[in-house]
Fold each of these.
Amino acid sequence: MIRPQDSMITPAENRCVQMMYREAGKALLVAVFFAVACSVTASATAPDATPLKVGVDTLPLPPGATDFRLYTPEGFDVLIAERIAERLGRELELVKLAASDRGPALARHDVDLVLGRLADDDPLSGQARIIDAGFRSGVTVAMRTDTDITRWSDLSGRTVCVSRGNAQALELAEHSHAKVRIEEAPAQSLVQVRTGACDAAIHDEALLKRLFQETGWQKFSATLPPSRPTGLVAAVSLDNRALAENIELALAQVASPKAWDEFQAKWASHVALEVYLDQDAPDCH
């Protein structure tokens, strides 16, 4: 049997027990703090499960069952959209938007951002945060060097090819009162100049300059003075500052001057090959 006095705690032992409780309490508080901090950090860094909705002028065509070749598209908006979504860790959802619908779609939050060409005086500049994507060009023509076309007005009544996705080229061809022929891809437009089916093809001047450096294009490198340039931009809603900052950071990483030089060089080499395959390669299927 234990006697009552044997179970009593001395003052020194009591102080020791109190110190142990205090230290245990501190350790518990530290553990709770780090648990909460880790939870908050995990939430902040977890990828956004919602898709990134990007408005573009033209949706890429899915390859059909009978297609045996993919073509390089006219512009870079879809490419840049893919790179931004990948950088942000989000799935990409493309939404086709007419130029006049860009501002309202951003205001209604139908899309997270718009990627497209913008002139300096475009009203969208006052309706959204505009972030330069790094590409800027006017449009001009590719023609045979022995052409009799020396000014834009000479295109009146002539057959002019443009490719789907270059709204500025289409507008200029129609303004020149040309007979417009719309092709799905730049290679399909440019090959018509080489075969004589089109008197001219209108595309971005910056890209045609690169194309004319490719083998076999010297005889088809006649041009006209380029139109007023437009720039590829990302437009974000005025009330979404956080996304705008993320887009700026993403573009700095995926659309640097070096990257744009590579994009344009690849465009020219791929289009040159596609034109060759359409015009000269034997049909083996």
Amino acid sequence: MIKMVVSDMDGTLLNSNLEISQKNLDAIEGLREKGIRFCIATGRPEQLVKEYIEPLNMKDPMIMYNGSVIGHPFQDEKLYDLKLEKKDIKEIIEYCELNDIIYMPYTKDMIISKPNYRVEFFQNRNEKLADKNKCIFEDIRDIDDIVNNHSINKVLLIENDQEKFEKTKELVANYSQFEIASSQKGFIDINPRGASKGNALKVLAKHFGYTLDEIVVFGDQDNDVSMLEVAGVSVAMANASENAKNAADHITSSNNDSGVAEWINKNLLK
């Protein structure tokens, strides 16, 4: 018997406009009416999930930062909280500065970043959001300030030159203290060792008293593979990466066609 459904956000629950369709919202409400818990597992930090808390009516802990943190954006208490080491953060930033690579350290209270196209995108979104849901960006150039005065759960690197991307990904993958994932093309997510959506799913399941066999997960990217592999039932989107599709038990329609709702309605709410 399924007791919990866990969904990734970007490319899965969210459409290409970063919106949750009414079909998906209705399906989530249908789950709750049947006593099935709904949770989120995302690579996003608190700052980038705040706007979705109210429409999703999320009160339970969420998997964030690809599994570095399990908690709630508007609550201080964390069920799980892994942080990168200061010396590692410094090495990452110095490498990015030397090689002109975008780097964005994620903290609970802010995203640290120089101006770039991704910051500009979310700052434009901020104009449409209530103050409590706005994403806070800080342009801090002093590396020692970043390293010593901020607790960092994840560093996102962005490099759209394929050769530089592959070289950088290979380099950081050699660090045994990192978990490396890719949540979008050109993105390298650097998390502390042990942080993955799969590991976080095990912690969340234990917290609620569920077995993994009682959980359905939805995902679309390589950073979802770890939870697609461990859940009792795993569903990849039609727009998913090949690795995600290969790890999943089922394929549903794309994120732009409310594939999450489609599968839930057919298999859990009929």
